[in-house]
Design a protein that fits this description.
Layout lengths: L1 H31 L6 E9 L5 E4 L2 H5 L18 E4 L13 H12 L9 E5 L13 E5 L1 E5 L2 E3 L1 H8 L8 E3 L5 E7 L4 E5 L6 E4 L2 E8 L2 E6 L6 E4 L2 E8 L3 E5 L9 E9 L11
Antiparallel strand pairs: 1-2, 1-3, 1-17, 4-17, 5-16, 6-13, 7-10, 8-9, 9-10, 11-12, 12-13, 14-15, 15-16
Length: 279
């Protein structure tokens, strides 16, 4: 009888210790997960459904030529994590919403419940704004850009535009689309011509453009393929319509209408100004 009681007591003691140990592990795990309002530093790489990289905090990703990047991808110059507050961002958004800002906000909203230091894969989406009239979410632009075959300016004007002194044969930029070349420099005048020749292609932030001659003008006609994602400064849109002389960009959805799959790693931020506990 005594042996039975001792065996039963041992089993109960073991079960109790296991229960308390298990609860302690669960409590520790719960305390370790990220909670709404926590300040964390995040690293991420996000991809469009076709596998192209949309954005990344990693300079290694930027340097890896084997990785396919979207036309709207912009590389970072440093690897430091982005500091965010975990949980939904309740601040009012300006329109159009910057691409990176929307990615960071959607990732921040997904952080509660994640384990610091662990890389996790999440899917984020964005929606059209409900407080902006739909017609104001579209922008119509001309497909045709023109420049004179010869552009004459003073040396001072050239320096203001180019940020450097004029030098014959030097390359310059007429605008983000058309490269230029300094043909000659005199005491009073700088002569610049578009560098691209008729029939050639130039890359623009809005897609490829074909160069043509039109009398005393050089013009570039943007191809503007419907459905193409384009970037204008910090914002991303999708070409929703194209005509002979114009095309329309839809900026209503910050991600261009589709989801992004992101590999995310979050680390707690250590407050260096907070005094450490004395042991």
């Amino acid at each position: 009888m005594f042996h039975r009681f001792r065996s039963l007591f041992g089993a109960l003691l073991f079960a109790s210790l296991f229960f308390f140990f298990h609860q302690a592990v669960l409590c520790a795990a719960e305390q370790d997960v990220i909670k709404p309002g926590d300040k964390v530093g995040v690293q991420f790489t996000c991809r469009f459904p076709n596998g192209e990289i949309a954005a990344s905090t990693s300079t290694a990703v930027a340097k890896d030529t084997s990785l396919r990047k979207s036309a709207v991808y912009v590389p970072r110059s440093k690897d430091d994590p982005l500091e965010v507050t975990a949980g939904p961002n309740v601040a009012a958004k300006r329109f159009p919403v910057p691409f990176l800002d929307e990615i960071v906000a959607r990732i921040a909203a997904s952080l509660p419940g994640m384990t610091p230091g662990k890389t996790q894969t999440i899917e984020i989406r964005s929606e059209r704004p409900t407080d902006v009239p739909e017609k104001e979410q579209f922008l119509e632009l001309s497909r045709i850009r023109q420049w004179p075959k010869e552009i004459r300016m003073t040396r001072d004007e050239f320096k203001i535009r180019a940020g450097k002194d004029a030098e014959a044969g030097a390359e310059c930029s007429l605008d983000p689309i058309m490269p230029g070349k300094v043909v000659s420099v005199t005491e009073n005048e700088v002569l610049v011509q578009p560098a691209a020749k008729a029939g050639s292609e130039v890359e623009t932030p809005l897609g490829k453009a074909i160069v043509h001659e039109n009398g005393d003008k050089i013009e570039a006609v943007i191809e503007a393929d419907k459905g193409t994602l384009v970037r204008m400064g910090p914002v991303v849109g999708r070409i929703s319509d194209t005509k002979e002389e114009t095309f329309t960009i839809d900026f209503g959805n910050p991600f261009g209408g589709g989801p992004l799959t992101c590999e995310v790693k979050a680390e707690r931020i250590v407050d260096k100004n907070k005094p450490s506990k004395q042991k």
